[in-house]
User: Fold this.
Amino acid sequence: MANILKKAAATLVDKMFNPATVLRVRAWESSPMHEIVIHAPTVAMEKWDSIKRFKCKVAELEYRDYTPAEWNAETRECTMYVETGHNGAGSRWAQNLQEGDDVLIGPAHAAPIPGREGKILCLGDGSALGHFLSLRQLTDSTVHPLQGCLLMHDAHEPIFQAKYPEFEFITPSLGNTIDTMEAWCRTITLSAFSSIYIAGNIPMVQSIRKKLKTIPQVHAKIHTHGFWS
Ligand SMILES: Cc1cc2nc3c(=O)[nH]c(=O)nc-3n(C[C@H](O)[C@H](O)[C@H](O)COP(=O)(O)OP(=O)(O)OC[C@H]3O[C@@H](n4cnc5c(N)ncnc54)[C@H](O)[C@@H]3O)c2cc1C
Assistant:
């Protein structure tokens, strides 16, 4: 009986999602990251004016949020970047996806774009890459020039670094993410930014925000988005 009810619930939930098809999957050479391109014909991407998240069905009654990082509203194709260096339902789902697979996604709002004009600073880990690329696509680089630092397990991904020179990829020294990020922040002029976005691991996001709040040169509005802990 419990199984029948569970199955009925799963079918009901599935009906609330949009169908999509996997077009391409690329595992990065060095970092544990999967780049997934999907075709989502029923998602009206042309209306997007804020950073979105896709609630993805990753297993029976299991859902995880992934960020549409880049998209083409005409073809309704969209890329997501999923960190896969750990053991979890979302990570396994991303690693097992293949071209032609059907997936279920539910688009929803994740974060606003900046209300003020001026430079944006993006600080986070690999799980926030999509969040920052989405911000990049949604804003005009002449009004909101963007600079970012991403902490990755192995920061070496040549194709990606060449494509997005505004982002620096850094491997934290001996797992000390906060000190590494703080040291990087000291190499830039923090007073030049009008908005700061911090996203990714929840304790990391909280610690970086706390550190920035103690620096007098920081006048930016700080947006924080914790993803996982
Ligand atoms: C709005 C929003 C947008 C998000 N966008 C993205 C995105 O674009 N890309 C992305 O990769 N994630 C993104 N996430 C996080 C994602 O939803 C999952 O939480 C994450 O992938 C972990 O799910 P899992 O099932 O693989 O692992 P879980 O079963 O949740 O966790 C298993 C274990 O792995 C650890 N873990 C989880 N994630 C990581 C990680 N990234 N690195 C190292 N260890 C980890 C956990 O601490 C835990 O010990 C987003 C989250 C939110 C809320």
Remarks:
- The CA atoms of residues 38 and 73 lie 12 Å apart.
- Residues 53, 64-67, 80-83, 85-86, 88-91, 110, 127, 130, 227-229 surround flavin-adenine dinucleotide (CB under 6 Å).
- The longest strand covers residues 18-27.
